[in-house]
Structure prediction request, 368 residues.
Amino acid sequence: MTTPSLLILPGDGIGPEVMAEVRKIIDWMGAKRGLAFDVSEDLVGGAAYDAHGTPLHDDTMAKAQEVDAVLLGAVGGPKYDVLDFSVKPERGLLRLRKEMDLYANLRPAQCFDALSDFSSLKKEVVAGLDIMIIRELTSGVYFGEPRGIHKEGNERVGINTQRYTESEIARVARSAFEMARKRGNKVCSMEKANVMESGILWRDVVQEIHDAEYPDVELSHMYADAGAMQLTRWPKQFDVIVTDNLFGDLLSDLAAMLTGSLGMLPSASLGAPMANGRPKALYEPVHGSAPDIAGQGKANPIACILSFAMALRYSFDMGEEAARVESAVEKVLADGVRTADLMGPEGGMAVTTSGMGDAIIAALDTSL
Ligand code: IPM
Ligand code: MG
Prediction:
């Protein structure tokens, strides 16, 4: 068996700091579990712009296409706000998603017991929460044409286009139904079929795929605005939510906050299987580059570490090792280890980014 390959793109802001903690976990897997990874590292986002004048070098793009999985930290920062739209850090990430054709973005929102007091919602609303948002990631208004800003008479007009083909909807619907079968067997599909034609098509195609291929899975449809309301009212009614690129962007931030901290949530972006049977894959924390705390050892590395755990599960078929990492994270939280973002109103002593990584390593050691 060939050694699994992993391309690490730490990116900007807190990206490099949190990725350094993931490196500890990768090294631990090699040393203590005999699981070696062929790890390479490269630049993305503002870091790539600084080095090459582009947020993603063609060589990096080519490498990303070749490896078994990409692990990304975060991109962006105020320093790059002045750049032309075409070379902004975010374009690097969007190019990776588009060219690797990572159409299914898995964003779990799970409330850890030790943090159930932490949500801005009541404890009984969020305790034990475990939902999976599957966001379509390569189409919709993020990529639709025509787009741009042009002049009409003496005023400017901004245009973006929401466009979905039947096959784009069908493939992400299948991902959602497959996921539901491994979980609570329930899918809720969200769109705005009341005002958008693309929403009408979305609803029809999801229903057709359900009826033809997944009649055993419970399917419901909701308008996305009502979905946002239901997510805050009683999120535990959901198991898997499938939605488009833009609604998924919004609803996944909302779901993330239900759990108390954006610093906790991982994501996986998956495409079609490669020749070796593994899906094209990119893993990244849901949080951003947090430039305000970058370089201060305050960042929470858990989302990035859990993203690596998702890589173990979805790319490398190492579900047991993934669960080992997830349990180690649960253990340190239960033991009261906290980074600054996880400090409650009662205060206490926060560990640094690397202190959190070390605590997770210590918890992993006790799992052997
Ligand atoms: C996300 C982010 C990105 C998005 C940005 C950084 C381009 O918000 O992954 O949710 O809008 O998709
Ligand atoms: Mg977002």
Observations:
- The two ends are 24 Å apart (CA to CA).
- Residues 90, 93-94, 249 surround 3-isopropylmalic acid (ligand 1) (CB under 6 Å).
